[in-house]
Write a structure and sequence with these properties.
391 residues; alpha/beta; Immunoglobulin-like; TIM Barrel; seven-stranded mixed beta sheet; four-stranded antiparallel beta sheet; rod-shaped
Length: 391
């Protein structure tokens, strides 16, 4: 539409110019002008006829523009004048060329209506703007992360991201009209991360990651002493040993979300990270009867995107750890003996039964109490704000 408007204007000008130039010398200056709907301005230029004589006349000529009968603009360098014209109206312009070859021309400019925001709605999916005219494809992302799209020809949607965004969004109508819309979008909610839990009752929390190598010895220990264990399972691993994990839950074990395939979530986009959490969570709910509320990011790697993805997936808590038990012993975050409130990390690997037996001996010697890990275990605890190393 913008090109069509400009084309019509040039045709009007050309016809007027031909009338004005009847009987004029070949060295009379020429006029060209264009309309920019984006800025609502008409740009009028004085051009030179060919040859040295034409260039001399151009150098001594100037433009004087009247808008709706009132002088409004005058060229300083003799070459160009930009005249603002209101959108959605007709504006009468008179162009006066002063100098050795004076010319006077009049024309009317019709500018498309201004682009306006008719409605703005904010919801979980971000901000949706409804505009008064069909739009060209909006550019994005906004603030480097907030995706900008056009669900309908006269709509613009700005999706939220983990980072708060306050910016100005420039929108262009199909006819070239533009508007600038201030947009403020808060950051997506984030699931908090904890590496410690409540210490009341000298509680300690045993967690085991992955799930590729289930252990009958661990299952026997759980049944014998009613030991609460939380397994943060990879969906792909859990599917291969479904009967075991149903027996694990039946023995009092709890299931946490360790994603579908164990990627480093900090290297994924928000949609892909959300899929990793959400698909695994749904699968565990279907396979084991309850969708987890706790998750553990693979490698202990997290950032605001990972936390926002977890929140969107329905996870209430992301669980780190403060101690690791493996074949080499028990390693705490501060290299001191295990303390109440610690979360201990093990893995479903060959030899896990022996590792767990040694851990329980230390737990008994320290008079600690293995306790089920639930969302309530973190009430009043300060969340964690930096990534951990591990797997």
């Amino acid at each position: 539409m913008a090109l069509a408007v400009t084309g019509m204007l040039v045709l009007v000008v050309a016809s007027v110019a031909r009338i004005a130039h009847v009987g004029a010398s070949a060295v009379s200056p020429g006029l060209t002008w264009t309309l920019s709907p984006a800025t609502n301005t008409v740009t009028i230029r004085l051009t030179s006829a060919s040859g040295p004589s034409g260039r001399r006349i151009l150098a001594r000529s100037h433009l004087v523009i009247s808008k709706d009968g009132q002088p409004t603009r005058q060229s300083i360098d003799g070459g160009t004048v930009r005249v603002p014209v209101p959108p959605g109206k007709q504006t009468s312009l008179v162009v006066q060329v002063t100098g050795p070859r004076p010319v006077r021309q009049a024309f009317t400019v019709t500018v498309p209506p201004a682009l306006r925001v008719l409605a703005s709605r904010r919801g979980p999916g971000g901000v949706l703007l409804s505009l008064s005219s069909p739009l060209r494809r909006p550019r994005g992302p906004l603030c480097g992360a907030d995706k900008v799209s056009s669900p309908e020809s006269s709509e613009v949607a700005v999706a939220p991201s983990p980072i708060p965004c306050r910016a100005k969004l420039t929108l262009t109508a199909a006819d070239g009209e533009q508007t600038v819309v201030p947009v403020t979008i808060p950051a997506l909610p984030e699931t908090p991360v904890y590496s410690f839990a409540h210490s009341a009752g000298r509680a300690i929390y045993i967690t085991v990651d992955d799930g590729w190598t289930p252990s009958q010895q661990v299952l026997a220990i759980m049944r014998k002493i009613s030991l609460p264990v939380t397994a943060f399972l990879i969906e792909h691993a859990a599917q291969q040993h479904l009967a075991y994990w149903r027996a694990f839950v039946g023995a009092g074990g709890m299931i946490g979300d360790h994603t579908v395939s164990h990627p480093n979530l900090t290297k994924l986009t928000l949609p892909r990270a959300t899929t990793q959490w959400a698909q695994a969570r749904r699968a565990f709910g279907h396979m084991l009867g309850r969708a987890p509320l706790l998750g553990r990011p693979p490698y202990g790697a997290f950032d605001r995107t990972v936390q926002a993805a977890a929140h969107r997936s329905g996870l209430r808590i992301l669980v780190g750890w403060s101690a690791v038990a493996d074949n080499d012993g028990i390693h705490t975050w501060d290299r001191k003996p295990l303390e109440p409130g610690e979360i201990v990390l093990l893995h479903w690997v060959p030899g896990l039964g022996r590792q767990l037996t040694r851990l329980l001996a230390v737990v008994r010697a320290r008079h600690l109490n293995p306790t089920p890990l639930t969302p309530a275990s973190f009430t009043g605890i300060t969340p964690q704000h930096r990534s951990l190393d591990g797997d």
